[in-house]
Amino acid sequence: MARKRFIAGNWKLNLSLAEGTALVQGLAKACAADPRSAAAEFAVFPTALAVKTIADAAKGSAIGVGAQNLHWEEKGAFTGEISASFIKDTGATYVLIGHSERRQYFGETDQTVNKRLKAALGVGLVPILCVGETLPERDAGRLQDVLRTQLTGATAGLTAQQLATLVIAYEPVWAIGTGRTATTAQAQEAHAFIRSVVRQAYGALADGIRIQYGGSVKADNAKELLGQPDVDGALVGGASLKLADFAAICAAAYA
Ligand code: PEP
Questions:
Q1: CATH number for the domain that contains residue 78
Q2: Ligand 1 mean position to 236 CA, how many Å?
Q3: DSSP letter at 253?
Q4: For range 47-60, the mean pLDDT
Q5: For the chain, what is the domain count?
Q6: Ligand 1 atom nearest residue 12's Cα
Q7: Which residues line ligand 1 at a C-beta cut-off of 6 Å?
Q8: 117-150: per-residue pLDDT in tens?
Q9: How far apart are the C-alpha atoms of 83 and 94, rounded to whole Å?
Q10: Known catalytic residue: 71?
């Protein structure tokens, strides 16, 4: 089944409003200049306070915008949190859920990931569910165990229709921000396994689910990673912060 490649840039806690605006406008221009770019999908994920500004700047272009997290409650006494419908209101269409930095530093669990996913899907946001193992887990031969647990926990109770919207990002924790990319064989093996877990629960739907690879993707390794049969895109951190680098990764998805 043909799956449209999807390149996403996670800006984390980086880029001012002006820097983000310039970057998204530059990217939009680069895509508009090459009709082949219509074959792929692109999005950036600014800090929460910049989402609306960047969504406004990207309006009418081929670049989508998303938030890096959300809270599952709609409203109430939850100081510091943002809800799915608030994100939707800004013009954003995507949201990252369960990024390893949220799991590592902010106590995210598979159960809270599940609640966030349901909240995102409930308002029609497209969630990118992040999963991946740490190095000790990989070294202990627990890769499949960890991925299966994260996937089943995160997607518990989702209908087939909800699952069909989901994008999954395989992000080995040891490859994030380290400059150490998974080999193409490691990426393909994990992606094929993730698809098999989805297939066990949701059948043929698994063939339409896009699975991005994330972890030190750069302009010089993107093409090779994207060439793997089960790698349908990339979630890019550091290399999404510079227009030339990110535009080159985006181009690897269609050129
Ligand atoms: C990420 O934060 O999702 C990521 C993959 O970061 P980097 O590309 O910098 O490794």
A1: 3.20.20.70
A2: 5
A3: T
A4: 98
A5: 1
A6: 2
A7: 10, 171, 176-177, 214-217, 235-239
A8: 999 999 999 999 999 999 999 999 999 999 999 9
A9: 13
A10: no
Q: Residue 100 above 90 pLDDT?
A: yes
Expressed in angstroms and rounded, the spacing between residue 160 Cα and the centre of ligand 1 is: 29
User: How many A from CA of 76 to the centre of ligand 1?
Assistant: 32
Q: Pick the atom of ligand 1 nearest to 130's CA.
A: 3
Q: What is the pLDDT of residues 168-206, one digit of tens each?
A: 999 999 999 898 999 999 999 999 999 999 999 999 999
CA distances for 74 relative to 84, 85, 118, 139, 176, angstroms:
7, 7, 12, 40, 31
Q: Which residue has the tokens 């950036």?
A: 44
CA-atom Rg of the chain in angstroms: 17
CA-based nearest residue to 168, from 131, 207, 206, 205: 131
Q: Which atom of ligand 1 is nearest to the CA of 176?
A: 10
Q: What is the pLDDT of residue 2?
A: 87
Task: Give me the domain span that covers residue 232.
Answer: 5-252
- 41, 108, 133, 171: the catalytic one is 171
